[in-house]
Amino acid sequence: MAILTISRECQSGSHEIGQAVARALGYGFVSKKRIIADIKRFGKRWPGADLEFDENSPSVWERFDWEYRGLIALVESIIYEHAVKDNVVIIGRGGNYLLRDISHVLRIRLVAPLEIRIGRMMEEDGIDDKTARRQIARIDKTRAEYVNKNYGRNWDDTANYDMVFNSSTETYEEIARVIVAALGEREKHKTAESADLLAGRADAARIKAALETERRLNLPTLEVVFDGKSVLLKGVIHNIKEHRLIEEIASSVAVSHPVVDTMHYRG
């Protein structure tokens, strides 16, 4: 089946619409809550880290910090883990950028006028206009910065999405029905090639997460990419001990594609 990713402005109805689609199709539903639950498998520190960073833009230091890199790698690996199973709705966390070029993925964007969203938050949370306005501005800003810093994309650029919905002009139920129909059409685009591309990227993400969360390693230049045939390890290493540890960890992670080590020593 097809996969749905939802990018959303704050209070644009992502959970209501995403859950309606999931119920209609028997899909899994992956939001922040599910990702945090999955992160717990990797140790007690990581759920706390996710709450701490919580889609915030990383500072220059955070981008090169072991914990921040580990967190992002874990989140990406978990998203891929759910995506390879198909039949899933993925909310936020850059899912539409991670799953780009996968032909059976439908990437949508949900928006609504600011005043409508403020009214929704005031009603939902029982807060005043000023507080709701401040919270929405903060959430939208940090989501946009998260996407820009981690994926180099403009969060609100409609070119990054297959469909854009304004949840103030259509009801959540109407939008969900359109998405369900679109997913039925998108399913026709699933091929052996698109499934293999997704599996290869999931392999790369799994290996990267294993390496980035290993405390004995500090690999700020690490890249793990799928080239269509193999998973490539790229970056600078410092010594043979570090190199052996990287190879040991990479070989211990079950993957469906060969792993090719192209890392080199610092000159």
Notes on the structure:
The chain is an alpha/beta fold and about 270 residues long. The chain folds into 2 domains: about 5-190, P-loop containing nucleotide triphosphate hydrolases (Rossmann fold, 3-Layer(aba) Sandwich), CATH 3.40.50.300; about 195-265, Histidine-containing Protein, Chain: A (2-Layer Sandwich). Helix content is about 50%, strand content about 15%. A hairpin with a 4-residue loop joins strand 6 and strand 7. Helix 7 packs across helix 8. The longest helix is centred in the middle third of the chain and has 23 residues, at about 130-150. The radius of gyration is 19 Å and the shape is globular.
Give the topology.
Layout: E1 3-8, H1 14-25, E2 28-30, H2 32-39, H3 45-53, H4 60-63, H5 66-83, E3 88-91, H6 95-98, E4 105-111, H7 114-125, H8 129-151, E5 163-166, H9 172-187, H10 192-212, E6 223-226, E7 231-234, E8 236-237, H11 240-252, E9 259-261, E10 264-265
